[in-house]
């Protein structure tokens, strides 16, 4: 009798286990159904007691492609992206870099004065017009020009006028004379043709006098030089007194610079 009761009890207790398994299967099916229902449920915004469909995605959960450029994203004020780091440092470095660049540009491009010095007379050639008692001379002079700029300059024109006793005896004008490289110096030669005649015809006797070995006369030379560089033009004038020998050809100075 006891064995029968035990078997009956086992049979009775086994039934609930079978029912529990069936209930778990039903719950699993119900869970899948709920997920499907939730997937089909529109996106809504809950505002207190009521709720409204999400206006951005219209309840679909996806933003339409044609509205991508029309939507605005809200970023919290505490977001670090709104607080860039080391802003003052970057701004200070940028300003300092700009100042350094401007300083270098001004330093290298700022026009500096071009120094023009008298280089003396290199050579004098003399011809006598015995019939008209005129002394003709070709006086070659030298200018020593120093370029202190960090770029080359162009000597656009050179005008020289020679006077003797307030009388103009020769004028020479040249254009596109030379180009002087940056931070360099150069000797520029120019020749002025002189004529001692007319009111100065008395000099013919002095210049041809054989008893005198040196026939020096003093002439006044006024020279004007015009330069151009980096869109800037400047002019320099030079006035000197020179001794020349009107009696014979002569070479006075030796050239010490490359022309």
UniProtKB/TrEMBL annotation:
GO terms for cellular component: endomembrane system. Keywords: Membrane, Transmembrane, Transmembrane helix. Signal peptide: none annotated. It comes from the Eukaryota. The keyword Membrane applies. It is found in: Endomembrane system. The chain crosses the membrane at residues 89-110. Belongs to the TMEM106 family. This is Transmembrane protein 106C. It comes from Eleutherodactylus coqui.
């Amino acid at each position: 009798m006891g064995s029968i009761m035990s078997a009956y009890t086992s049979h009775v207790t086994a039934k609930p286990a079978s029912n529990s398994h069936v209930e778990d299967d039903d719950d699993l099916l119900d869970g899948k159904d709920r997920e499907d229902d939730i997937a089909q449920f529109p996106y809504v915004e809950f505002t207190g007691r009521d709720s409204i469909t999400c206006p951005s995605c219209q309840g679909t959960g996806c933003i339409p492609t044609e509205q991508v450029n029309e939507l605005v994203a809200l970023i919290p004020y505490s977001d670090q992206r709104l607080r860039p780091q080391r802003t003052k440092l970057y701004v200070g470095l940028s300003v300092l870099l700009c100042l350094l660049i401007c300083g270098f540009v001004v330093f290298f491009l700022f026009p500096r004065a071009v120094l023009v010095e008298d280089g003396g007379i290199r050579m004098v050639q003399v011809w006598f017009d015995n019939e008209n008692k005129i002394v003709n001379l070709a006086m070659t002079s030298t200018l020593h020009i120093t370029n202190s700029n960090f770029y080359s300059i162009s000597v656009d024109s050179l005008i020289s006028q020679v006077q003797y006793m307030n009388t103009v005896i020769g004028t020479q004008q040249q254009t596109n004379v030379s180009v002087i490289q940056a931070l360099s110096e150069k000797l520029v030669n120019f020749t002025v043709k002189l004529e001692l005649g007319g009111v100065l015809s008395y000099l013919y006797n002095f210049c041809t006098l054989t008893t005198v070995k040196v026939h020096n006369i003093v002439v006044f030379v006024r020279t004007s030089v015009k330069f151009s560089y980096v869109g800037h033009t400047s002019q320099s004038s030079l006035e000197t007194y020179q001794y020349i020998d009107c009696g014979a050809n002569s070479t006075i100075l030796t050239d010490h610079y490359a022309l």
